Batch of 4 targets.
Target 1
Amino acid sequence: MAAEQQQNQDVVAVILKDHRTMEDLFRRMRSVEADRAGALAKFSALLIAHGEAEETEVYGALKRFKDVDNAEVEHGSEEHAEGNEALLALLEVSEVGSDEWDERLEALAKAVSHHLDEEERTILNDARENVPDERRAELGTAFLRERERHLAADCGSIANVRAVVRG
C-alpha cells in the first residue's frame, strides 16, 4: 500500500478515487440486498473526512493559482455544507429502508452527485491543467493525512456530523 500511495498521491487522483467510492456506497445504500446501514456508516465517515480535508488542505491552496476559479472553490465549500445537512437528515432517520429513509437518501445522493460532478468539471480540471505535478503530489499527501486524521476520530458519527453542520 505504501508504494501505491507514493505513486498515486496526485490530489486530483486521490479525490477522484474518493468520489468513485462514494458513488459505490450510494449503490449499496440503495440495494435491498446490501448492508445499507453499514454502507451509510462508511459513507458518512468518508463524506465528512473528505470534505473537511478538501477545505483544510486543498481549496485554500488551489485559490492561489491564477487559473483556478476561486468562485468555484467557494461554491464547493457551500456544496459541502449542503451535502453535510442532507447526510445529517438521513442519519436521523431511525428505520433503514423506510420511505423516509429512501427519500432522504435520494436527497443526499442528489446533493452529493451534483457537487462531485461540478467539482470534477471545474476545480479538479483547473487543478490538473494549472497546478504543477509536484504541488499536486504535495496536496495529495496533505489531503490524505488530514482525511485519515478525521477518519480516526470517528468523524462520521451522528454527533460529529451534527457538530459539523451546526458549526
Target 2
Amino acid sequence: MTSGPYEVLLETLDPTSHRETSLPELDGKPDPWESSMQATCECLSWRGAFDNLERRHAEDTLGETIYRDFPVRTRSVVVTAHTLMDRGVISPDELRARMDAVRERFHRQ
C-alpha cells in the first residue's frame, strides 16, 4: 500500500473485510451511512465542488488502484475524502481528528 497523506484513509480498512466478488455480495440494502454519503456527494455535485461524473471516474480509477482492497460500497467515501484532501479542503490531520471524534461518540453510546 501507499503511504503519505492518504494513510489516514488506508488505516480504515478492516483487516477482516474483503472485496466483494459476486452479485449477491454487492446487492443489498444500503446502510444508513451509505445513504448519507450519497446525499453528501449529491450536495457536493449540486454546488459544483465535486461533480458526480468526476467522482465516478475517480472511484473507477482509485477503486482499482489505491483502494482496490476496500469493499465496493465503501469506495465513495474514501475516494471523496481522498479528493477533498487533494483539493486542500481538509488535511489528513483534520480528517483523522474528525474520524477520532466520531469514533469517540460511538464508544460513548
Target 3
Amino acid sequence: MTTHPARTTTRKLARFTGHYVEMVVAMLVGMVALAPLWPSAWLARPDVDALVMATNMTIAMVLAMALRRHSWPRVAEMAAVMYLPFVALLVPYWLGAISGGALMTAGHVVMFPLMLAAMVWRRAEYWH
C-alpha cells in the first residue's frame, strides 16, 4: 500500500486553476476548429451564431473533460452552464432589447464566471 503525501493548498489551487484554464483553451480550440463546419448563412443571424459558438465550445470542452475522466453528471452540468447565458439572453435579443453584439458579449462575460461557480460548487471534482 502506498500513501501519497497531502497536497498543499497552493498546489490544489494551482491544479484547480489549471483545470479552468484547460477548459477555456479547449473551448477556444473548439470555436476555431469547428466554426468552418457550419453554413455561413446560419452564422449571419446573431442568435444562431451565438448558439453555434456555444455548441462549438461545449463540444471541445466535453471532450477535454471526458479525457480527464470527469464524471458525466459534472460534464453535463458544465455544458449546461455554458449554454445558459446565451439561451437566457435570446429572449431580450428577440424582443429587440439588446443587439446581436450585446448577446454575444454578455453571453461570454456571464459564461466564464458561471463555469467558475460550477467548479467551486463541485470543488471535490476539481480541487485535489
Target 4
Amino acid sequence: MEGQWYDAEAGPLVRPYAMTGGRTKPGPHGVRFDLIALVAVTSEGADGTDAADESLLGPEHRALLGLCRAETQSVAELAADADLPVGVVRVLLGDLLEAGHVKVSRPVPPAQLPDERILREVIEGLRAL
C-alpha cells in the first residue's frame, strides 16, 4: 500500500485539496487574488523574525514565503515556481495574508481605451490635413 503514495519520478503524491484542507476560496473574507497581483513578505516577516509563527505553517505555506522573501512575485509566478495549481496558491496566500505574513498589492487597472468615436474624429482630422 505504501507504494501508491509515492511516484519515483513525481515524488510524494498529495492531492491539492489536502494542501488547502478542502477549501477552494481564500479565507473567510473571500479575498480574490488576480494572477498579476504582487505578493511580498511583510516588513515584520522579511528578515525571518516570525520563525516561531512559521513553524506552525504547512510546508507549502513556508515554500511560498521563501519564494516571496527572495523577491516580490505575482500569483502566477508563485504558482509556477512552487509547482502548485493556481487555485491552491490562492487559498494558501489567503491564509498567509490573514496571518499577516504577506502583503498584496493589487494590479493597476489598465487604462481605458479611448472611445471609438474619438478615434474616428482623429483619423478624419488627419485625413483633412
